[in-house]
Amino acid sequence: MMLIQDLIRKKRDKKRLTSDEIKWFVQELCKNEVEPAQTGAFLMAAWINGLSELEKINFTNAMKNSGTVLKWKLNGPIVDKHSTGGVGDTVSLILAPLMASLGCFVPMISGKGLGHTGGTLDKLSSIPGYKVEQSETSFQKIVSRVGCAIVGQTSKLVPADKILYAIRDVTSTVDSVDLITASIISKKLASGINNLILDVKVGRGALMTNVTRAKKLAKSLVSVANASNCKTRALITNMDDPLSSAIGNALEVETVVDVLLGKNKNEKALLDTTIALSIELYSMVYPAKSKTEIQKKVHSLLDSGHVAERFENMVSALGGPKDFLSTYKKVLPKTKYVIPIRAKKDGYITQIDTKALGNILLKIGGGRQKASDNLNLSVGFTKVVKSNKRVDANEALLMLHYPDKCLSSSLEEEINNCFTISGRDPAQPINPILQKID
Ligand code: URA
After folding, report:
1. pTM here?
2. What band does 369 get if pLDDT is binned at 50, 70 and 90?
3. Is 223 an annotated catalytic residue?
4. Which residue in 246, 304, 305 sits closest to 270, CA to CA?
5. In 52-178, which ranges are E strands?
6. Which of the following is catalytic: 11, 116, 123, 188?
7. Residue 116 pLDDT more than 80?
8. Protein residues with CB under 6 Å of any ligand 1 atom
9. Closest residue (by CA) to atom 5 of ligand 1?
């Protein structure tokens, strides 16, 4: 007979757990047969001593099998993208309809934002009527009809992750590459996809602030997913600056639609990152196609408005307006006031504290500190200046979308402090794509 304490001891003593032991642990966990103290001890032992590659694969698959595993009957490749989280990151909102326009099926299960990084579901929730919670049947129908759907996770998918994550959160065991890998990949495998592109972000606005750690995470995610029959690659992408000039839920959606309609040509980092991830994903599915050919096709789908239309179809299928492309400016929630925050001196923007900017959004109601917090979907920033730009004293660093006419001087100061302005010449421009891991 197995005992939980024996498994904890084994992991504590740096021994390897067998596949059966891992499966049993996860099953017992989901039957509520493991005391929270035991789960915490197990997680800490795993955090300290790590999991071997085989343990990681077994743990990921045991977690995947702890709930429903979606099965798709679709006439085309089933693809998905996952990002480790950033600020102003609306890649999914463009990539999903773009991949669908390329003939792939994209059943994207996304999360809410927590902490300084935004969540795709919160952004989409700002669209009146859009229902992120869908039954499995309607999710299946919409993906099959429209080609893509971005929805929230149901409690039936990987229940083990919910239990483990809650305990990781209070035992300082979230930041383990092995545990993050099992958590992310188990959920992707349970959604039934077989091709995955990972956007591992690195920089001042990312969870991983240095390339070495980002690379370690990317390699771990890619190898576990590939070993579990899901073709996977990763790009390590830059998150020093916010990815788009808008930060805030409804404001980011509005900017995406502007970009899709060709009305905003200034979102180069967002488009470059989205296109690079889409090309990598498509070329993984169709290795015989040349990247130049794929790139041409991607640009023509974006420029012709096909991707915009696909986005509108998805929004409508999920309960949003049928004519979102012509009504979005009117129907997205807005704050009463838009206030410029001005530079205090002349010079070049040499650094943006993107994480601090994400945290200010959270403080003014656009993000959550705890899972139960309600959001103000209309607050945020637009026209955020980019690194290396020259600004004059009194020029706007950004426009603050805010519910009150007056803002405290401390909030203005806090926003100003996110921008370092110096007299020196600008540094090299930021390259959005840093490395590929496959
Ligand atoms: N995102 C997840 O889904 N799980 C983690 O452990 C970390 C980030």
Report:
1. 0.96
2. confident
3. no
4. 246
5. 79-83, 106-110, 148-152
6. 188
7. yes
8. 174, 180, 183-184
9. 180
